[in-house]
Amino acid sequence: MIKLMIVDDQKIFREGLKMILSQYEEIEVVGLCENGDEATKLLTVYQPDVILMDIQMPVMNGVDAVKIIQEKFNVKVIMLTTFHDESYIYDAIVNGASGYLLKDTDVEVIYQAILTVHSGGALMDPSVTKIMMKQFQNIAKDQHGDVLDLNALSEREQEIAKCVAEGLNNKEISEKLFLGEGTIKNHLTKILMKLDLRDRTQLAIYVLKCK
Asked: Contact, 186 vs 147, CB < 8 A?
């Protein structure tokens, strides 16, 4: 059973998500919170495995909340965003979010995302990723000091890393490069080790900074 917390300032939205996601037998919605401050204070009470959290909320937004959560509790967090949240998403990922989804994403996709991050994976909504690419690149131009390149990777590993930056999942990468999904997974493990990165979300940002 995956213990889930939902954090959103819109009561109808968070209660609607609870009602729908509670129908999945693997998920137990243990708590609902209306802002990041409330969520950080109630984490020890609810002890969730995964958190679905809105980015823009009063009192404390999702960007600040995910930083506190990762520093103190290391709970998996999926950010729920809109196209108007572009300026926040980079900071949310840097602060430790395991990924992000659009708020109008199909419930089945949200369900699969919960399973993915709970098992140690990360996710990037392809439609959001395409919008974010330009922002990540602009931010990278303003950051100096770190020498970022992909030369530590083999040619095949660089191909896979670039596919991740495009928002492709393992199945889509395997189809594009004509490799098995198991092979893609093994390559990704090696890539993350070589670049000293936590997950595919950080890898995508790294690749975009290298451009």
From this structure: no
Q: Quick one: angle between helices 200-210 and 155-165, nearest 10?
A: 100
Q: Which residues pair with 31 in a beta bridge?
A: 5
Q: What is the largest distance, in Å, between two alpha-carbon atoms of the chain?
A: 49
Q: Which amino acid is at 129?
A: T
Q: Which residues contact 50 (CB under 8 A, 6 or more apart)?
A: 2, 3, 4, 5, 75, 76, 77, 78, 114, 117, 118
Nearest to residue 31, comparing CAs of 54, 13, 6? Answer: 6
pLDDT by residue for the chain (211 residues), tens only, comes to 999 999 999 999 999 999 999 999 999 999 999 999 999 999 999 999 999 999 989 999 999 999 999 888 879 999 998 766 666 777 777 788 888 888 888 999 899 999 988 887 777 776 666 555 555 555 554 444 455 678 889 999 999 999 988 878 888 899 999 999 889 989 998 998 888 887 787 788 788 777 6
pTM of this prediction exceeds 0.85: no
**Do the bridges between strand 50-54 and strand 27-33 make them parallel or antiparallel, or are there none, so unpaired?**
unpaired
Could you give all domains of the chain from N- to C-terminal order, each with its CATH number? 2-121 (3.40.50.2300), 133-210 (1.10.10.10)
Instruction: Kindly tell me the number of DSSP H helices and DSSP E strands found in the chain.
Output: 10, 6
